[in-house]
Amino acid sequence: MLDPTILLYVIAGIGAFVASLAITPLVRATSIRLGFVDRPDRRRKAHKAPVALGGGAAVFVAMALAVTAVLVTASFMGVEIPKPGTFVPLVCLAIGAVSIVALGLLDDLKGLRGRYKLLGQLAIAALLVWSGIRIEGFTVFGNQVTLGWFVIPATLFWLVGTTNAVNLIDGIDGLAGSVGLILCLTLAAITGGQGNITQTCVMLALAGALLGFLRYNFAPATIYLGDAGSMLVGLACGTIAVMASAKSSAAMAFAVPIAVWSVPILDSFAALVRRKLTGRSMFSPDRGHLHHSLLVRGWTVQQAALFIALICATTCLSAVLSIYLKKEWIAIVTVIAVMIFLISTRTFGHIEFQLLKGRMHRMASSFGVREGSKGASLRESSFQLQGSREWSKLWAAIVEAAETYQLTRIKLTIDMPLLHESFYASWDTSRAVSADAHVWRLSHPLVIDGDHVGQMEIAGETKSEARGSTLAQIGQVLDFLEPIEDDIRYIREHIQVDELSMRACRTQERSLATESLTRTPVSAEFPPVVPN
Fold it and tell me: Helix (H, G, I), strand (E, B), or coil: what is residue 327?
């Protein structure tokens, strides 16, 4: 006779998979009919036609149906789930799941501002903390660390962080679903080994729902997971990870969540560093994520998604091995090895590493220092964040004119996501501003043919004896910027021409490959000569 626990696991996983296969097309058709779609734009989104949203709702409904079937079956079989002590946290997790899906759907529909979405996430995380889901402490190689009063802030930070981590990597078809599937299966293996049936069923149900959804989400996707789905995966997995760590040994409490979440955490941390050090809003989207880096290298969407899923599976496997072999170093060494591999091969993270290095040097007043006029030290740094165009030549021309226009600070940001070009540079002088000088600042958006392609921030000074000349000086600077915008337009047009040429070459290569496969073999055209 089949073990009752195994039967519940089968119902959770297979039931959610079948339900997702059936529900997702219905949600897709409804979304298209209601106009609830993700439309392409000229700045960030590369898909050619509108794609249905609402995939998160389909995943949630399939998961909820499977979990309900598990609870009903367990009651008939006399299996006690959930266990005492976990009822309130799991009920709050269910409430949080409903809330995060609603918040995500609202964001997909209306486009909420980042701060409002963050407030909603904090409220949901606070409910989970109130229910008893907390990170009390951890150990690192046998050294006990107790969080004390920092328990609540640390748990809130973790839950909000994991909620957004999956959301941030949801940039290409099938990626968030694949990573979420791996996270769920990993946590199911951990909680299953601990004998926690309810948590395992929740993870298997979410894994099954994601697997069924991926049938329609792999490239070319016909429906997107959306913020509703990606945040649901992040919140559920982040919560179960905390509960699993509370059940494991203290040594594993640190290694397991970090190893399981290492790839989404690395991608999210890199995004925060990149945006902060280039002066952009933490909530502003960009195309500098891991999957974008792979696409720029010529990888297809399918290849990029499979590669990221592979490295995620590697770190997750190390977490499982750490639990079962009781060797914390396996997870930690694997995570460090993956990070070193990505950075050293310049696949991902090397740009953010250089930004951090540059900021540290600037703070020490020793990065790019050279003597300017009147003994002033000039600090300059530039970074090719993405692409291969020589923006540094344009930047050099701008810096060369700084002294002519009595400028004290310049910051240039070039951002062309669809063309995979991004450049950041800054220059400033430590020269003390004269007491009798007027300081002015200018923020100038770079707009080419109606598209915002960058930003230029400039500061300068005007001597007080030159009354009325501040506006004249700013006018001169704007006149200087006009040909620079023409230069940017010229570079942009050449990038677009190169992109079209590359696409034409790829299309021709595919046509030749197809033709070679379908061409009649020579042996068929000319039958072999049979000797007499």
Answer: coil
For the stretch 215-231, pLDDT in tens is 999 888 999 999 999 99
Nearby residues of 504 by Cβ (< 8 Å), 6 or more positions away: none
Local confidence band at 106 (pLDDT 50, 70, 90 cut-offs): very high
- What pLDDT score does 518 carry? 53
The pLDDT of 443-468, averaged and rounded, is 77
Taking the C-alpha atoms of residue 209 and residue 59, their distance in angstroms, rounded to an integer, is 5
Other beta carbons within 10 angstroms of residue 524's beta carbon come to 8
Lowest mean per-residue pLDDT among 72-76, 362-366, 459-463:
362-366
Using the structure block, give the residue that is written with the tokens 């991926």.
214
pTM to 2 decimal places: 0.77
User: Which residues have C-beta within 8 Å of that of residue 8, sequence separation ≥ 6?
Assistant: 70, 73, 74, 79, 81, 197, 201
Instruction: Please state, in angstroms and rounded to a whole number, the distance separating the CA atoms of residues 515 and 272.
Output: 47
277-331 tens-digit pLDDT: 777 777 676 777 888 888 878 888 899 999 999 999 999 999 889 888 878 888 8
Best CA proximity match to 67, nearest among 226, 200, 187: 200
E runs forming strands in 355-450:
369-371, 377-386, 407-416, 421-429, 437-448
Burial of 33 (0-12, 13-18, 19+ CB in 10 A): exposed
Buried b / exposed e along 93-125 (16+ C-beta atoms within 10 A):
beebbebbbebbbbbbbeebeeeebbebbeebb
Contact 200, 220 (CB under 8 A): no
Please give the pLDDT value at position 532: 43
Return d(Cα 67, Cα 284) in angstroms, integer: 36
Respond yes or no on whether the N-terminal peptide bond of residue 82 is cis (omega within 30° of 0).
yes
